Structures are given as C-alpha cells and as structure tokens.
Amino acid sequence: MNASADLLKELRIDRKSAPPPPTSRRGLWIAIAVVAALLLLAGAGWAFFGRDKGVEVRTATTVAIGSGGSSASVLDATGYVVARRIATVSAKITGRVREVLIEEGQRVEEGQVMATLDPIDADAERSLANAQLSAAHSGVEQMRAQLIEAEANARRLSSLVRQQLVSKSQYDQAIAQRDSLRAQLLTAERNAKVASGRLRIADIGVDNTVVRAPFAGVVTAKAAQPGEIVSPLSAGGGFTRTGIGTIVDMDSLEVEVDVGEAYIGRVQPKMPVEATLNAYPDWKIPAEVIAIIPAADRGKATVKVRIAIKQKDPRIVPDMGVKVSFLESAKPAAAQQPQGVRVASAAIAQRDGKDVAFVVNDKGDAVEQAEVKLGRAMGDDRQVVSGLSPGETVVLDPPPAMKDGDKIRLKKDEEAQ
C-alpha cells in the first residue's frame, strides 16, 4: 500500500512550481536568413555563369566609296621608304680626327662643319709654301734691281760708242748682260707664280682637314670619334674609318615597291597612289607614280616602281615599311556615281548560296544578317554595291553557325579602344 501511494504521489502535478520557459525563435530566423542568402547567391551565379554571353567577335566599319573623288584600288603592293639623296661624308685626306661636331638626329645645313682633323702636317706644308713664295718674291726684286742697273749701263755705253769713246765690244757686252737679266727676271717671276700656286694648294690641304656637309639634311649615323684615323679609302682593317657620318635629305624621300610582272600593266606614270606606313596604319598618305624602272628582277619576277610622296612629314623616315594602293585615275565629276561602300573581305560570308554580312545592332550585343551585292576586289577589301550603308559595324570572320539575331560580344582589345 505504501508503495502504491508513493507512485500516485509522483504522478501528481505540482501546480505551485513555475512553468517551463518558452522555446526561443532566434535559431529559426537565422536559418531562414541563411536559406535566403543561398538562394540569392544561386540566382546571381546563374545570371553570371548561366546566361548566354554571345560569341566573341572582331568588327570593322564600312567606308563610303561615293562620288567625292575617291578612287578604287586596282593593285596593292608593299615596299620601303628610300632617300634619293643620301651621303656618307668622309674627309678627302687621311688624318686623325680632332673633333666631331655632329650627333644622330641633328639637322645640318650645306657647308656646316661636321668634323675637323689634326692640321699639323697641313699647317707645316702651308708654312713651307709660304716661305718659298717669299723667297721667290725676293728673287724677283733682286733681278729687277740688277736689270735696272744693266739697262742704265747699256744706255750710257750707247752714247759713248757713238762718240767712239768706248769700243763696240764693251757696248755689245752690256747689251748681252741686259738681255740676260731680262730673261732671269722673267724666270724669277714665273717661279714666284709657281710658289703662289703651291701656297694655294697648301691652303686647300689645310681646308681639307675640315669636313663640311655637302647638302642640308639630317644626320642618321655618326661613324667616327675623336682620336680615330679616317681615310677616304678603306685600309682593309678595323683601325681606319672611312666616314664621319651619314646625312639624308628628308625632302628627297620616296617609296620604292616591287610589282609582279603579271600586274605591271596596271601601273602607269602619274597614277594616283595611296600609301600607308606600317608604323601608322590609320594614316593615308597621298602619293603619285614617278616612273616604272625599265628592268625586271629575274629572281623575283618583279618590276621596281618609284612613287613620290606628296605630303612631307617628320614621321616619314628612310627604310620604313609601306603598303601602297594604286588607284584608278579620277573620272570627270559628271560621270562619277556613288559606288556603295568598302568593307574588309573577311566580313563577307555565304548563307544559303547568297553573299551576306552580319551588321552589329545599336546596342552592340546582337547581329542582323544583311544580304549584299558585291563589286570589285579592292586589295584586302571588297566593294559592296548594295546591302550595307557607310559607317555600319560588321562582324569579321563570322562563325559558320552565326545567324540573324545571334548574341555577340566584342573582343577585349576592341572594347578597350
């Protein structure tokens, strides 16, 4: 009985004790926030990695050919900028360099001193020639004095011989002495002239120790330093220089290109040309054909063509690579008609047997397929008679699977431009 009573007491509810604390909801809210953050991250990841970014492409802009005087290219060629007037300046004599007064890139005028040589030997030669000239002049003066005395003696004896106061032989001897002194004076005067000429030659020798610019231009190379031996002739060794420096007349620059024999018939003298330097691909330089050299290169099967550059600019320097486009001669204004646009050949594709191009929309994120009508080839470009407008952006080398409305994105190098 006592055990049953104890069990019943344990089952009795103690209403006097405090109720248990309610369960906290803080953990529930933390769990909800974590789930929401994960959902947001998943959505952002899908938006960044899952969406279609489009095909990465390169683009180009169409250029109007129009009737404003532009001419189509009939032939493209490559060559180099050359100078028609270029000189490696050297001394006329062999000597040791005392001073060099030029540097690369310096502009010099005609006659400007570029360098000087050691003048010791030339100065000694000049001093000797000057002394010889002075001696010759002294000899002339001596002969003149003796001749004056002899002429006076001959006149005096002439009067005495008429009076028969002296013998005829004395008079003849005085005449002979006078004539001899006249001949000696003539010889002395000629010797003085020779000495004077020798002095002028010595002066030239001194002047040859000064090296001057033969024409106005720009120094492109400095070949000698003070203390070196220079000579107009090569000594066959490494201790003798043959030049002081190289000067280029920048006003004589022109372009020389090699044109294949099969296409030389398209080139004519005075033909307009558009030149593009490899260093400045966006700079179109007007030019003109000077002459077609009447000789072919058997090994390369090419003919050399000289082209005059009409625009002078310090950016154009010798040996630069250049690409030239030989243009059609300008037609009369009344006969010129709009000729469509010029576009890179890589922008033309084939779809269902038709020539098409893919034009980038205004937003720059999609393309529109445009059927085009092609004209003549213009070097690396192509004439498009219809289907494209000037200033439109087209895709270069479109993938075979590209179609109207496809998404695209520009390459990073083009986006940066």
UniProtKB/TrEMBL annotation:
GO terms for molecular function: efflux transmembrane transporter activity. Residues 140-191 form a coiled coil. Keywords: Coiled coil, Membrane, Transmembrane, Transmembrane helix. Residues 85-231 form the Multidrug resistance protein MdtA-like barrel-sandwich hybrid domain. SUPFAM superfamilies: HlyD-like secretion proteins (SSF111369). Residues 403-417 have a biased composition (Basic and acidic residues). The chain crosses the membrane at residues 28-49. InterPro entries: Beta-barrel_RND_2, CzcB_C, MdtA-like_BSH, RND_pump_MFP. Residues 382-417 are annotated as: Disordered. One of its GO terms (cellular component) is efflux pump complex. Residues 341-395 form the CzcB-like C-terminal circularly permuted SH3-like domain. Residues 255-327 form the CusB-like beta-barrel domain. Belongs to the membrane fusion protein (MFP) (TC 8.A.1) family. This is Efflux RND transporter periplasmic adaptor subunit.
